[in-house]
């Protein structure tokens, strides 16, 4: 997958999460969870764009770690919604969980590869 394809994929993920959140019934509790998920999912896309502009291997790696953390946080909030059994489109929720899980795997693998290539221990 090219950087451009991954840029589009992360943006599509953020858009799909936003559309999903717009479909949820509103309450104080749901609004809090929605806000957290919106922030983390949009951060995946925004920060991946910054990764693509990394100035050095260490800059690239540090920015990629942020993206990985935000993708994992998005996965958490999606699983949290599922666990709370919030009324929603369960098929869409499962698709988003799958996509978040795949994004975490992609970014984690990228981090591992960069570390190995540059002989970085932590």
Mean pLDDT: 95
Q: What coarse outline follows from CA principal-axis ratios?
A: elongated
CATH superfamily: 23S rRNA-intervening sequence
Sequence of secondary-structure elements? HHHH
Q: What is the CATH class? A: Mainly Alpha
How many domains? The number is 1
Percentage of residues in DSSP E strands = under 5%
What's the helical proportion of residues? over 70%
Named CATH architecture: Up-down Bundle
Are there runs of 5+ residues with pLDDT below 50, and where? none
Q: What fold name stands as the CATH topology? A: de novo design (two linked rop proteins)
Q: Please, how many helices?
A: 4
Biggest sheet, open or closed, and with what strands and sense? none
Q: How many strand segments?
A: 0
Report what the structure shows:
This is Four helix bundle protein. InterPro entries: 23S_rRNA-intervening_sequence, 23S_rRNA_IVS_sf. The protein has helices at 3-22, 28-51, 57-84, 90-117. It has 122 residues and is mainly α. It has one domain: de novo design (two linked rop proteins) (Up-down Bundle). The two termini are 25 Å apart. The model has no long low-confidence stretch (mean pLDDT 95).
Summarize the structure.
The protein is mostly helical and 122 residues long. Helix content is 82%, strand content 0%.
Blueprint (SSEs and pairs):
Elements: H1 3-22, H2 28-51, H3 57-84, H4 90-117
Helix pairs in contact: 1-2, 1-4, 2-3, 3-4
Which characteristics define this entry?
122 residues; mainly alpha; de novo design (two linked rop proteins); elongated; 23S_rRNA-intervening_sequence; Four helix bundle protein; 23S_rRNA_IVS_sf
């Amino acid at each position: 997958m090219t950087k451009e394809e991954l840029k589009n994929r992360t943006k599509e993920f953020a858009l799909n999460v936003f559309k999903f959140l717009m479909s949820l019934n509103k309450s104080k509790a749901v609004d809090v969870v929605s806000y957290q998920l919106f922030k983390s999912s949009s951060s995946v896309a925004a920060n991946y764009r910054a990764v693509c502009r990394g100035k050095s291997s260490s800059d690239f790696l540090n920015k990629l770690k942020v993206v990985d953390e935000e993708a994992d946080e998005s996965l958490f909030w999606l699983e949290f919604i599922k666990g709370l059994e919030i009324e929603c489109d369960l098929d869409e929720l499962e698709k988003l969980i799958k996509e978040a899980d795949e994004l975490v795997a992609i970014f984690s693998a990228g981090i591992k590869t960069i570390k190995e290539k540059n002989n970085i221990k932590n």
